[in-house]
Amino acid sequence: MPLIFVGGLIFGFGLGFSHMARPEVVLDFLQFDDFGLLFVMFGAAIVTGIAFALMPRLRDSAPLTGDAYGRRLKSFDRNVLIGGAIFGVGWGLSGICPGAAYASLGIGNITILWALVGMFAGAYIQGYWRSQRAASETTPAGAD
Fold it and tell me: What are the transmembrane regions (predicted)?
């Protein structure tokens, strides 16, 4: 748990330091006016890629869970495509992604709470919808 907290601190500080927790900066990126976000994302991807390549060679198991390292690949299906499109529309409308929204609170952007409430409501509605769909698929056709 402390390692997760430290990781969150570093992530939040990095977003705040790079100004990526400001919706107007993200909207400028989405409108092709400022490509700073692209460099931040590439920097993060490079560091993450190096860590993912080195950690299995340096340690036999994950530091938090003790589980062996392994790849969990999710198939690219219709749900991934539709969910990604919905996420992109929400990101474009709000000007902020979920991680940066939390960091945005740290720099005093209280109005971002509206976006966070929307994210939680959307996630809840999707979870409820999926559980209802799964329940209806497991119920036999003639059962009451």
Answer: 36-55, 76-94, 100-125
- Domain count along the chain: 1
For 31, the 3-state DSSP assignment is coil
Q: With contact defined as beta carbons under 8 Å apart, do 100 and 20 qualify? A: yes
Residue 144 within any structural domain of the chain: no
Residue 67 has pLDDT above 60, yes or no: yes
**Has residue 8 got a pLDDT over 90?**
no
Structural domain boundaries, residue 85? 2-138
What pLDDT digit, counting tens, does each position of 105-132 carry? 888 888 888 988 988 999 999 999 989 9
Residue 68, beta-bridge partner list: 61
* Contact assessment for residue 79 and residue 71, using Cβ atoms and an 8 Å cutoff: no
Tokens 């609170």 appear where? 105
Q: Is 116 exposed, middle or buried (0-12, 13-18, 19+ CB in 10 A)?
A: middle
In a domain, 74, yes or no: yes
